Amino acid sequence: MVAQGPPGAQDHERDIGGEKRARTVIYLVSSPQPRVGKTLVARLFLDFLIGTSRNPVLFDTNCFEPTLASLFPERSVVVDLASVRGQMDLFDPLVEADGRPKVVDLWHGAYGRFFKQAEEFGFFKEAAARGIQPVIALLTDERDQFADELEKRRSMWQDAKIVLVDDVGAVRTVGARPPYPLYHAIEIPELDPMVRRAIEETGWVSYRMVSRPQADDATELELRSRALLEPVFWDIERLDLKLALEQSPSIP
User: Fold this and answer.
1) Per-residue pLDDT tens for 93-141?
2) What counts of helices (H) and strands (E) characterise the chain?
3) pLDDT tens-digit map of 134-144
4) Distance from C-alpha of 147 to C-alpha of 138, rounded to nearest angstrom
5) Which of 34, 37, 89, 197 has the most CB atoms less than 10 A away?
6) Shortest CA distance to 141 belongs to which of 229, 44, 35?
7) Which structural domains are found in the chain, ordered by start?
8) Is the pTM of the predicted complex or chain greater than 0.70?
9) DSSP characters for 120-187?
């Protein structure tokens, strides 16, 4: 495939000591099940990356109802993985080590197709060869199908970095967990309607509000959002730091 690159991808390449270096991370937010909170989780990753000035690009794989892409059209690509054009629009930019983080909102209808195509295209091997770090953020589900998916993803990609995400407000998980340590885990608490509506229906970047000092005249939305989202963003920050430390060159 011929690499096209997302709009503005070249803008985030860093010049360090006269040498171009980039830390490129891909967050694959996924689940084979519907209505488990994938788009909400993708949105929170996007909020964090926008709020920390990373200039992320979003890939929305639900070409029928691209909800998240509609809120951030200037930084989004809507792809249809059933078409060759859609496959190129997704996989070509994902193997560009351009320093620009990518968030893939992997619709449950495209879940199996994505990983099948990733295997056929040798995506994970190509990413590793180019210094790109994919992270699979796998949503839990009440039928514990995610436990089987953990094994599948680990078997297809030996060095898989899998983040298990519990969206408490979306599903009540039975509680199955793998017998081996996970790379990271994130819990999304049950959000009250005001906060959830602001996140799901507007382009408001919640991380910017949560990360700044609380004002004396803070609104009810700000107070509720801070209480609910601060622990979530702390988990995402820890994940980001862990990835950064692993990819930093060793000091002799």
Assistant:
1) 999 999 999 999 999 999 999 999 999 999 999 999 999 999 999 998 8
2) 9, 9
3) 999 999 887 77
4) 10
5) 37
6) 35
7) 20-247 (3.40.50)
8) yes
9) HHTHHHHHHHTTEEEEEEEEP-TT-HHHHHHHHHHHH-TT--EEEEEETTT--------SS--SEEEE
